[in-house]
Amino acid sequence: MQLYITKELQIAVDAAKARYIASNARSKALHEEAVNVLPGGNTRTILHTDPFPIYIKHGKSYQVTSEDGITYIDMAGEFTAALYGHSNPVILSAMNDVLQNVGMNVGATTAQERLFANEICKRFQLERLRFTNSGTEANLHALAAARKFTSKRKVVTFSGGYHGAVLTFSGGKPASNNVDMDDWIVVKYNDLDAAKEAIRSPGVAAVLVEGMQGANGCICGTLEFLHGIQQASSEVGVLFILDEVMTSRISEGGLAALRGLKPDLKTFGKYLGGGLAFGAFGGRADVMAAFDPRLDGYISHSGTFNNNTLVTHVGHVGLTTVFTPEVARHFTEAGDSFREKLNEVTNGTRIYFTGVGTVATAHFLAKGPRHIDCADNVEEIPELKTLFWFEMLEAGFWVTLRGFIALILETPPSELERFVKAVKSFISKHQTLVALET
Ligand SMILES: Cc1ncc(COP(=O)(O)O)c(C=O)c1O
Ligand SMILES: *[C@@H]1O[C@H](CO)[C@@H](O)[C@H](O)[C@H]1NC(C)=O
Ligand SMILES: *[C@@H]1O[C@H](CO)[C@@H](O)[C@H](O)[C@H]1NC(C)=O
């Protein structure tokens, strides 16, 4: 890989880093203590940043405040899980109600499970559903169902795909800590011919795909690609599993509804639990029957907290009274127009925003054109990304180092406009660094 860092860029990054260290002394001290008990001071890799992470003390509505006393507009939105923000009154009151009147571990099946499951099934067109505690688990169990249903083992998936902690495929291969190392066929994203060939090869149980690769930089699958996968899979009896963990928020029925897809199974996570640990998977009744304990040879699906009362109540209230279908539609429109504005002000520069609805990623292109349909084909300038991160933090925006943005429902439009202005200022300040030669 070519290195694109220039002397001017290095000087700007070093200066920004020095300012970061100076403004966040308390975070630095906390980090230095944390490394003595947590490897690298960290318990969730993505939150590690150099030279140390800023520690957040509390969040309120659409803002977070650091241990150093700085308040930011939260643009990270907990990687899509914080859609409801940090103190939505409806969510808080549902939570309180459970704590006061229901109890947290009641040791029995509850009626609430069905209510919540029913709501998710209705919204996302599923015949049957199961709850888990994370999106990772949802994908693992969906794959188990597909394997049982087809009596096959292999799974076609895509380079750069992220389906959970042990289901990661950056750089075109399974990560070293993945499960089922021998069972993956990893294909380039948006390469329909390669996908078809893999789907038609022997021994394939399922294809597992994100409709938009979220962790890999909000790269959208084209209509042709996603429908082509669906078609090729159904022709040969391979199950089509759409990972909606990040994308379920982008329309009232998720990405599948927006793109007219009918996957055999879908997997969920993030905000659907009202901000609590959550996962779910579901779809065709005949495939999900794999888990029916009344049937011979069923798969056991355990998990102490699968049916936890907090999530089943709070998630239900959120989906039925806060993130209603109408709100979902407006939110996505607001997100799309925000991203379009960002791409207007960054036009002609290396900075380019991809995504759909309220989920986006800023890219820092080494060269044109301003278009990405497969991250493997694009080179970026990581140091420019880092500079952007430092300087957006200084402008009062809580952004992720990887440039990922997920909007929070309560964030006022005026703050989004202020963000656009901050991007504009970054561009005028660093004109030569961001100019894109074509
Ligand atoms: C598309 C996708 N699938 C699965 C997961 C895993 O979900 P969890 O972190 O809840 O295990 C994520 C998390 O970011 C995700 O983005
Ligand atoms: C979930 O349900 C089981 C019985 O099916 C019960 O023993 C358990 O306590 C419930 N879990 C929670 C966290 O409520
Ligand atoms: C960017 O600029 C080009 C050339 O001036 C123009 O054709 C294009 O429509 C612009 N795109 C956006 C998103 O503003």
Multimerization status: single chain
Question: Terminal Cα separation, in Å?
Answer: 19 Å
Which blocks of ≥5 consecutive residues have pLDDT under 50? none
- Over the alpha carbons, how many angstroms does the gyration radius reach? 22 Å
Classify the beta-strand content into a percent band: 15-25%
Protein name: Glutamate-1-semialdehyde 2,1-aminomutase
InterPro entries: Aminotrans_3 (IPR005814), PyrdxlP-dep_Trfase (IPR015424), PyrdxlP-dep_Trfase_major (IPR015421), PyrdxlP-dep_Trfase_small (IPR015422)
Family: Belongs to the class-III pyridoxal-phosphate-dependent aminotransferase family.
Keywords: Pyridoxal phosphate
Concise overview:
Its cofactor is pyridoxal 5'-phosphate. This protein has 438 residues and is an alpha/beta fold.
General description of the model:
This protein has 438 residues and is of the alpha/beta class. Among the domains are: 1-39, no CATH class; 89-322, Aspartate Aminotransferase, domain 2. Helices cover 39% and strands 16% of the residues. The protein has 14 helices and 16 strands. It has helices spanning 7-23, 25-34, 89-102, 111-124, 135-150, 192-200, 223-236, 254-259, 285-288, 309-322, 325-345, 382-394, 413-429, 431-434, and strands spanning 56-60, 63-66, 71-74, 128-132, 154-158, 184-187, 204-210, 212-213, 219-220, 239-243, 265-269, 279-283, 351-356, 359-364, 397-398, 404-406. β10, α8 and β11 form a beta-alpha-beta unit. α3 (89-102) packs antiparallel against α10. The longest helix is centred in the last third of the chain and has 21 residues, at 325-345. Bound molecules: pyridoxal-5'-phosphate (PLP) and 2-acetamido-2-deoxy-beta-D-glucopyranose (2 copies). One 2-acetamido-2-deoxy-beta-D-glucopyranose binds at residues 343-344, 347.
